[in-house]
Amino acid sequence: MIILGLETSCDETSAAILEKDNGKIKLISNIIASSLPLHAKTGGIIPENAAREQIKYIIPVIEKSIEGITIEKIDAIAVTVGPGLMGSLLVGVETAKTLSMVWNKPIIPTNHLIGHIYANWIENEKIKLPAIGLIVSGGHTDLILIKNHGNIKWLGGTRDDAAGEAFDKIGRLLGLPYPGGHIIEKLSINGNVKHFPMPSPMIYSKDFDFSFSGLKAAALREIQTIKQLNNGSISDICASVQEAIIDVLISKTLKAAKKYKVKSILLGGGVAANQKLRDELKVKASESNVELFVPPKSLCTDNGAMIAAAAFFNGRPIAFDKISANPQLYFD
Ligand code: KG4
Ligand code: ZN
């Protein structure tokens, strides 16, 4: 079976072709156009600007993704229907509807968050269920229990800022370019976590919720007490912020893995590209006899391949006139 996956929920425009053969998912193409340089100028995403760029990119990106593929061989079109920015989602959904009608292919509406976790199944058939999924992106921080394909239970999530959002907002306070996550990771290498210790919010709470807005306030207080930020103090704050975020993510993920006696932990979302998070979670998971799966870094940030992968396992094809974008879509 071959699926064309489309993803336009935020600032990326992506189309991918994946083939499922004998239970194995093969990545044939994954084309991503990003309007990030535009958003770096405004220090964050202005939704209308993102959607305008996606209108320009969507057709060339699809054309490139299907190069060398005959349309007859595509069995279905998977598209992100939510959550995300309304204007951006509409670009993907309306394009999918049009292609569905013209090519006479079914559409598989797909949840962006589930897509982040299913990036783990691309070129990998070793995952054993049940599993705990940790989605850490710019807009979301959620823990889910995947009992089986199509049987997903939400365990908890952030009460305010998402983990990636915390990286980005603290990056802005430090005068770093947007998005701050990977820059904070880089600067942390030379930082000393003892100089500006930061709290790991809610690390001892009994639930599976997170909160990162207090960390942002703590970082702001430290920045305001320093008369002149220099490379050394910026690196120190970056290291402390990164450690505070990673510690709470790992602690709650392991607590969930233990409670639900899972076989695997699956990481997904842009923040999953963070090497320290990947390395430390791997060590802690193996100490708990749970196997950790993390997508290659290129499949952590938004992409069409993860949407097609999720559709292979969770998708129900529907008629093109029954599908609509839902910015508030969650786990239900
Ligand atoms: O999944 P994604 O591409 O978009 C959303 O669905 O939100 O995630 C983007 C987020 C941004 O907040 C970015 O700062 C963060 O992922 N990010 C990182 C790293 N690379 C990207 N955060 C920490 N460390 C990284 N290496
Ligand atoms: Zn995402």
Shape: globular
Strand order of the largest sheet: 3-2-1-4-5
Structural class: alpha/beta
Q: How many separate helices? A: 10
Description of the structure:
The chain has about 325 residues and is of the alpha/beta class. It is built from 10 helices and 10 strands. The protein starts with a strand and ends in an 18-residue tail after the last helix. The structure holds 5'-O-[(R)-(carboxyoxy)(hydroxy)phosphoryl]adenosine and zinc ion.
Short summary:
This protein has 332 residues and is of the alpha/beta class. Helix content is 41%, strand content 20%.
Keywords, separated by commas or semicolons:
five-stranded mixed β-sheet, globular, 332 residues, binds 5'-O-[(R)-(carboxyoxy)(hydroxy)phosphoryl]adenosine, alpha/beta, Nucleotidyltransferase, domain 5, binds zinc ion, single chain, 2 domains
Protein topology:
Elements (H helix, E strand, L loop, with lengths): L1 E6 L4 E10 L2 E11 L1 H7 L4 H19 L10 E7 L3 H18 L3 E5 H7 L12 E6 L4 E8 L2 E7 L5 H11 L7 H8 L24 H13 L5 H29 L4 E5 L6 H13 L3 E3 L10 H11 L18
Parallel strand pairs: 1-4, 4-5, 6-9, 9-10
Antiparallel strand pairs: 1-2, 2-3, 6-7, 7-8
Helix pairs in contact: 2-3, 4-10, 5-7, 5-8, 6-8
This protein binds 5'-O-[(R)-(carboxyoxy)(hydroxy)phosphoryl]adenosine and zinc ion.
The site of 5'-O-[(R)-(carboxyoxy)(hydroxy)phosphoryl]adenosine (KG4) has 19 residues, from helix 5 and helix 6.
